[in-house]
Design a protein that fits this description.
This protein has 102 residues and is of the alpha+beta class. It has helices spanning 19-30, 51-67, 89-101, and strands at 2-11, 37-40, 45-49, 72-81. The protein has a single domain, classed as Alpha-Beta Plaits (2-Layer Sandwich), CATH 3.30.70. It has a 4-stranded antiparallel beta sheet. Helix 1 packs antiparallel against helix 2 (51-67). The chain is elongated, with a radius of gyration of 15 Å.
């Protein structure tokens, strides 16, 4: 299972606010509810699932602002693909919290 940190940046919007575009991207993620887990943060979205599925999700997320009339989009992606053991968003956070306690 892989975890990706993705930020989709629509360029050339009419306003400094991009929440409308973020909402459109979140609707893309909802289509994959049965295949991925995801979490919206104030600065990005974190998604976990099988890498092949995630790569398709990334493409759809990147395309979403174009569907709303944006002519330029910059997308930043960071992929954590650990194969020696199962790693999830939840397990990574639990590991850090456990180390903080003891």
């Amino acid at each position: 299972m892989a975890i990706i940190d993705i930020t989709v940046i629509p360029i050339g919007t009419e306003s400094p606010s991009v929440s409308t575009y973020v909402a459109g991207i979140q609707r893309v993620l909802e289509k994959y509810n049965d295949q991925i887990n995801y979490e919206l943060t104030p600065m990005n979205t974190i998604v976990e699932g099988e890498l092949d599925v995630l790569l398709n999700v990334i493409k759809e997320m990147h395309e979403a602002p174009f569907q709303e009339g944006i002519q330029r989009v910059a997308t930043n992606i960071r992929i954590d693909d650990r194969r020696d053991k199962k790693s999830t968003m939840k397990s990574k956070l639990e590991s850090v919290r456990n180390k903080m306690q003891g």
